[in-house]
Amino acid sequence: MTTTTRATESVESSPFRVSITTSILIDAPQAAVWSVLTDTAAYPQWNSFIRRWEGALAPGARQHVRIEPTTTSGQSFRPRIIDLQPGRELTWLGRVGLPGVLDGRHRFVVEPLGEGRSRLVQSEVLSGALVPLLRRMLTVATPAAFSRMNAELAARATAA
Q: What Pfam family does this protein match (any one) (predicted)?
């Protein structure tokens, strides 16, 4: 199988909020895509954006995540899973400092399309006082990193 290269990316920005949505069509069934997405121990082998993700995949569970949106930047943080629908959706809420400094609601959705195909949607809404200072990274580097991860995940899912 080959990965369909139809990917989309959109970014909306306001003074203290950035919303990013990326998606990719994948020539693999929903279960295969979900399996790759939730095998977080394997992320260092293939994922150039989320370099580490540790923690129980359960509602309310705290995660240990290291992201590297570019080759020169990186950040570790501890989001909490706020929604989990096995096989379909995983959402976490991460914060830098206190609530309102920089909050990120990150969502992964795997949609079945039939005929052994699916769509991965990766999105995040970032809000808070740091958004104006980080706007360039949040509106350029971060969406590019999401799209890169989506393509890497798609390649891994179709290779399985």
A: Polyketide_cyc2
> What's the whole-number mean pLDDT along residues 112-140?
95
DSSP 70-126: SSS--EEE--EEEEEETTTEEEEEEEESSTTTEEEEEEEEEEEEETTEEEEEEEEEE
72 CB-near residues (< 8 Å, 6+ apart): none
Distance CA(160)–CA(148), nearest Å, equals: 19
Can you state the percent helix, strand and coil of the chain, rounding each to 5? 30, 45, 30
Cα(32)–Cα(18) distance, integer angstroms: 30
- What residues are paired with 25 via a beta bridge? 119
What residue ranges define each of the domains in the chain, with the CATH number in brackets?
A: 7-159 (3.30.530.20)
> Three-state DSSP class for 158?
helix
pLDDT of residue 137: 87
Please tell me whether residue 53 adopts helix, strand or coil conformation: strand
CA gap 144, 54 in Å, rounded? 23
pLDDT tens for 4-63 read 456 688 999 999 999 999 999 999 999 999 999 999 999 999 999 999 999 999 999 999
